Amino acid sequence: MASSNNKTGFKVIKAGILSLIQDLGRVGHFNIGLTNGGPIDKTAFKWANRLNSNDLNSSVIEVSVGGLELQANCDQVIVLTGANMPLTINNQNKELWQSHFVQAGDIIKLGFATEGLRCYLAIYGGFQIGKTFGSTATVCRENIGGLLKGKNGAHIGGQALQVDDFLPCIQINKNTKPELLYLEKSHQPVYTNEITLRTIPSYQQRFFSDLEQRLFYSNQYTVSQNIDRMGYRLTGRKVTSDLNGILSEGICHGAVQIPNDGQPIVLLNDRQTIGGYPKIGSVIGLDTEKLGQLAPGAKVNFEQISMEDANNILHLNHSLFKRTQLHKIN
Amino acid sequence: MFRIEIAGENALIIVFADKINDKAFSLVQQATTLIRQQLSEKVVDLIPSYASVLVQFDLLVIDHFQLQNSLRALLSTLQQTKKQSNEIISLPVYYSKKSGPDLERIAQHTQLSIEAIIECHHSQIYQVYAIGFAPGFAYLGQVNPKIATPRLDSPRLKVPKGAVAIADQQTAIYPNQSPGGWNIIGLCPLDMFNPNQRPHMPIQVGDQVKFKPITEQSFIDLGGTFNDIV
């Protein structure tokens, strides 16, 4: 990989609704309360990097809802994956899930998502951003990650992209231009407005009666207006437990927390690390990433699965991702 | 001495007790150290709390059966000893209806006057049991049962930076604005988490804390603000 050069990069012309620098996320800092961050839709994120032949932990932009506009000041390669968000380069429509060359002066414009909510914009070599606590992942709630705006590299971060931000990238050698690649349509995820969340009964599950559990797994819930990278609040049939708060304990990704109003909250990447609401189970990562693509009003069902099933699903998916080949664009 | 439960697809939780007690807290500290030393290749990260440790692992390296076996073998060596406490750290708090919008809710719940609730909160020493929820968010215990009050029915979307709050017998200071469901009783003007300073936080797990009531003027002089208080 070529060495980093601060002069080449992309300028933010329009920031869009919520555009965040993300790598795979921050690990190893739970002891001081730092959460993971990282891409809500990890599958789309990983494909964006693979389509650029990048290391899978390279920094990309997670664009929620849409509206981002960038200008390149050098030769580069871009890829957009994830939600169905119209992409143009110099007003020419471009396909998602494939890489495209851009040149100095080119304008890259993202419209607004028609299916799904979040896209991943990757460039060759990844955006060259300094790490905070080992990661570039932006966690707004923590003021951690993303572009570091403090003097002398101080950790004043955690902001969404803003107009006039400059995103450095590596320079591409003109003689060894990367190959352009695409992912076959049959391997691309489909984003719908009604999904099933496979859930492992766990944590305080036994403090929810059999009837409450059966009702929870058989009723449909609606995505509320209160959704963010921390968690998705759902509305629907009230779930009641025999507990009125518990001793605060560690919370894992995907945990389904039931506060006293009985409306479930599925906790995502920017969740709090410790909390004291009872939890009825945990949604597997492959399904939280689908949940994170839903907008308010979408419908979800919970389906109970065993830890062993979850294990198999994850391994099969991991193997499928590794085996799936990308194709060259002629 | 402990039980191991499934938390999620790549997480187990080791539970030492369901209520706060010094023995469980000591076991949590010992277990955290042991797991970090012995199982660092399989374990991604740990969340120690009052009486439990959440263990996040890499499913591509180890499955939950193997990890449970490793944990049981490792933790069978734990000793039931009482942990020695560290230093006492004083933290200033401006208690008032203006800075503590849930004082009235607690007064209704406990049938105590607001003055009595404030007095009760700052007249004892608290143990730092855990850090989490948000960077630098320290869980302190235990609050006198007289003023213990359950969380709000639905979490607030915005709790201000510095909010001193109670949930049941726990108390804490919100280091940054965030959503949260605890009852706010006052504001602390100090930075509870600063990524540019070392140490990042004024307090550590195992420390003891005493709250010192201050006036509105001292609160402002120490850099406190009333932004975002609802």
Query: How large, in whole angstroms, is the Cα Rg of chain A?
Result: 20 Å
Task: Kindly state the percentage of residues in helix of chain B.
Answer: 10-25%
The number of helical runs of chain B is: 5
If you average the pLDDT of chain A, what whole number results? 94
Shape descriptor of chain A:
globular
Main sheet strand line-up of chain A? 13-20-17-18-15-14-21
Helix-strand string of chain B: EEHEEHEHHEEEEEEEEH
Low-confidence stretches of chain B: none
- Global geometry of chain B: elongated
Keywords for this entry:
heterodimer; A: 330 residues; mainly beta; 6-stranded antiparallel sheet; 4 helices; 22 strands; globular; disordered N terminus; B: 230 residues; alpha+beta; Gyrase A, domain 2; Cyclophilin; 2 domains; 7-stranded mixed barrel; 4-stranded antiparallel sheet; 5 helices; 23% helix; 30% strand; elongated
